[in-house]
Each structure stands twice: as C-alpha cells, then as structure tokens.
C-alpha cells in the first residue's frame, strides 16, 4: 500500500524547483498603496485588489470595532443555527435594495459563494456554459457539479450562441464575469444576456472586480451595462476592502439556496462585526464618486504613459493592467527585479493563466499617486533588458 508521506513528498519533489512552486511571504500590512514586509521594508504595492483603498478606512475600522463591542468577535455557528444576527440581516437588506434585487444572501467568501450557488443549482441533466477564462472558483464548482460543462470562447457571444443552439434536456446556466480577474477586460454583458434570454436560460455573473467600481454609486458592471442577471455574485475582498461575498437573486432562488446550498448550511457565517463593517464600506462605496474618479484617472495615466514600453499591454481599461511576458522564468525574474526596487508586482503563472502567458498582474488603486505610477513605469523600462 502507498505510504501517505512518500506520496506527498514525491508530488512536492515534482514541483519544487519549477516555476509552478508557490510560496507565501509574511507582510506586516498593506493598504492599496504600500505594502510593508515582515522586516519593515516598504514596497509600492501594485498587486492589491483594494482598488479604492477602503481596507484602511477609519470609519470602516471603527464600524468593525463597534460591531465587535456589540456582538463579540464570532457568529458562533451557521446562519441556520446561531449565526444570523440583525447585522447580517441589515446588510443583506441594504445590498438587495442597493442592487435592485429581492434578496441577498451572505457567504464567507467569493469562492464559497460560487461553489455554494453552482453546486446547489445544477442537476444531472443540466448544462453550464461558461466563459473559458472564468475564475477557478466558478470552473471548479462547474466541474464538480453533476451538470455538463461547456466553455465558450472568451467574451465571444457568437461562440456562446453556438453552444446554446445545441439541445439540452435540462436547464442551462450561462456563467461569466463582469471584469476578468487576470486580464482586466470587461464582458459584453448586454449581448451575453440577450443570448441567454432568447435561449430561455439563466445568466450568472460574478462581478468580483466590477462591484464598487462601475455604475451609478458603484453598483457594478451589470448595472453599468443595464443588465440584470438572474444570479449576481458580488465579493467584498476587492473594492469593499474586506472579505466575504453575497448572491443577489429573486425570493424563490434565495429560499432554494437556504434549503440546498451546503455552504450556507454547514459553514459558520461571517462574524457579525464584519457585517457591520461591510455596511459601513457599502456607504463609502455609494458615496465614493471621488475615489472612483481617482482610480479612473490613475488607469488613464498608466495606459497613456505605458504606451512606449516595449512590453505587451492588453486592451484592459480597468484597474487590472496585466503586462504579458510569456515565459514563466522571465516573468519571475522581472518581478524579482521590481522587488529589488521596492515595487511589489506579483508574477502570475500558468495554470492560473494560459500556458505561455505568464504576466505581471499590475493593479492600480485610488490611493496611488501619479508619481507612484511614474516610479513603476521607470522601473519597467529599466527592467526590460
Ligand atoms: C472573479 C473572482 N471570483 C471569485 C473570487 C474569489 O473571491 P474570494 O477571494 O472572496 O474568495 C475571486 C478572487 O480573486 C475572483 O477574482
């Protein structure tokens, strides 16, 4: 019989020394703009999803503290047992009202929300048709569900249409994202929604990177493209500056998830203090036009000034500005060179992205200054040798 330790060691040995080896570094803290390593070294941070810099906002921190005073630090159980407080209920109602849905249900993370929704919805004869660059949490849920999975060409409604024209005995769920996490491009949601609707299918949009950034009061990609998917996923680890997620849906679907989503039933709910802080973050986001403007100015500035770099920029006009390098080794070397100049830009490698498309995933935030961006561009120019 195979020994567990031998088996794990063999698999680690296969990966160690390759560019696929992943490791974590200890940081003291980071705030959209700076990251402080464990030795106190300060880096300009171009890898954070804290797009509006809310993770350090004093009113949100105060709300969390006040929530902890009122409710303690943990929820004590799943929402079906002890973990559904007035703080959770209020946040759900605020989210539903803000985004124009009957109901919102909180999950502890975006990963959990995507798993909890897809695995609860899909049955054996059903079909998922997902954009082929959808996030791992969507793809993994689809793969593990009993439904058939088909992947349409990235952001290509014609490819979606071709799949929709093929018959299916069960129900079909079309899945895409508002803003793609590794490429930063936006989905043509209007056309995708029209295709889904005309084929009588449901649309699920994960707007992890669009919520808080696009649309009136930061209502996200769907709102800004005048689309209302049957299932909308919003996450709180990016523009909200915290963590957690919610699914927005109609009353019947919400009741269904409460009965069938194992992630809701068998997992401790988020701390009530976090729900209080999320309500405060939502207020900041709704009133955050100035922050959104600062972010958009930074994106425009970066793209204009980056035009004469010898690197390949993508068409992204969002806070995610990947610089495609191709080779894993070269991408790691570039990331290391930037680090030596106190710039934090993580290399993103396959299998997170397609083979031969390793990239520096640069993210911009409202907290960056134009001088910060100049420093990054200068370093990128100097690194390309
Ligand atoms: C598009 C997308 N969906 C879901 C997630 C997972 O969200 P969370 O970090 O809250 O688990 C991510 C995380 O980066 C993401 O980019």
Automatic annotation (TrEMBL):
SUPFAM superfamilies, per database record: PLP-dependent transferases
Known catalytic reactions: 6-carboxyhexanoyl-[ACP] + L-alanine + H(+) = (8S)-8-amino-7-oxononanoate + holo-[ACP] + CO2
GO molecular function terms attached to this record: 8-amino-7-oxononanoate synthase activity; pyridoxal phosphate binding
GO term, biological process aspect, one: biotin biosynthetic process
EC number: 2.3.1.47
Binding residue positions for pyridoxal 5'-phosphate: 110-111, 181, 209, 235
Keyword set, alphabetical order: Acyltransferase, Biotin biosynthesis, Pyridoxal phosphate, Transferase
EC category: transferase
Family: Belongs to the class-II pyridoxal-phosphate-dependent aminotransferase family. BioF subfamily.
Descriptive protein name: 8-amino-7-oxononanoate synthase
Primary gene name: bioF
């Amino acid at each position: 019989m195979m020994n567990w330790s031998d088996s794990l060691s063999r698999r680690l040995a296969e990966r160690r020394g390759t560019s696929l080896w992943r490791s974590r570094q200890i940081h003291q803290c980071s705030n959209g703009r700076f990251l402080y390593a464990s030795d106190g070294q300060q880096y300009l941070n171009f890898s954070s999803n804290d797009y509006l810099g809310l993770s350090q906002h004093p009113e949100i921190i105060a709300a969390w503290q006040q929530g902890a005073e009122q409710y303690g630090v943990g929820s004590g159980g799943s929402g079906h047992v002890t973990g559904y407080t007035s703080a959770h209920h209020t946040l759900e109602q605020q989210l539903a009202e803000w985004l124009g849905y009957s109901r919102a249900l909180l999950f502890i993370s975006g990963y959990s929300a995507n798993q909890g929704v897809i695995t609860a919805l899909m049955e054996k004869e059903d079909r998922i048709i997902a954009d082929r660059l959808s996030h791992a949490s969507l793809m993994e849920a689809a793969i593990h569900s009993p439904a058939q999975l088909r992947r349409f060409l990235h952001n290509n409604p014609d490819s979606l249409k071709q799949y929709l024209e093929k018959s299916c005995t069960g129900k079909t769920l079309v899945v895409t994202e508002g803003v793609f996490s590794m490429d930063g491009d936006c989905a043509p949601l209007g056309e995708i929604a029209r295709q889904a609707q005309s084929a009588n299918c449901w649309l699920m949009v994960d707007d992890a990177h669009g919520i808080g950034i696009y649309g009136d009061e930061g209502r996200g990609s769907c709102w800004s493209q005048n689309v209302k998917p049957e299932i909308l996923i919003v996450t709180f680890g990016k523009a909200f500056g915290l963590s957690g997620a919610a699914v927005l849906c109609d009353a019947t679907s919400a009741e269904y998830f409460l009965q069938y989503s194992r992630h809701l039933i068998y997992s401790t709910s988020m701390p009530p203090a976090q729900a209080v802080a999320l309500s405060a973050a939502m207020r900041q986001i709704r009133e955050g036009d100035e922050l959104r403007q600062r972010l958009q100015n930074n994106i425009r500035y970066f793209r204009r000034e980056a035009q004469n770099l010898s690197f390949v920029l993508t068409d992204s006009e969002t806070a995610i500005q990947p610089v495609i390098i191709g080779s894993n080794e070269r991408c790691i070397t570039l990331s290391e060179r930037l680090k030596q100049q106190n710039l934090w830009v993580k290399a993103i490698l396959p299998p997170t992205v397609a083979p031969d498309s390793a990239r520096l995933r640069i993210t911009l935030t409202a907290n960056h200054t134009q001088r910060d961006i100049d420093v990054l561009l200068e370093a990128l120019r100097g690194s390309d040798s």
